[in-house]
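note to self: dont lose this again. the chain is below, predicted strucutre after it. 163 aa total, dont forget to put it in the shared folder this time
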Amino acid sequence: MKIYGITGTKNAGKTGLMERLITEFTARGLSVSTIKHAHHATEIDHEGRDSYRHRTAGAGQVLVSSPVRWALMTELRGASEPALDDLLQRLDPVDLILIEGYKQAPHPKIEAHRTETGRPLLSPDNPSIRAVASNANPATALPLFHLDDTTAIANFIATEVGL
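---
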């Protein structure tokens, strides 16, 4: 499977770019899955739901299934967070996996950047970043795309991974 990432600082436009890229690649007929890294405890279900009650009662894994979707939640219960490579192996085969976050992982990525954040580019200190998508023109030697130019960014990714 082909893997490409979107990274950047908080509020840099990562999730919006991911959403547009998923739409673009699926419109091209490609199958796409995603992995999103969060730095905080992420709740998929909420208090009062049966699955929540199962987890809080002590279940290590809870699988919820319906006619529309299924989801498997695994409680780490103090164990280390799985490595990205371990998580990738859990996904069904697709044409492209887009990864949001995981700044330090070695897979190739594009940095989303918004000047309003007041934060500098990550790319000068991160060799896995291959291009920058920004709402301005920051100084960079890397290929630079406008943050909203989804087609050009998707074309770049497709060329990079050989799709």
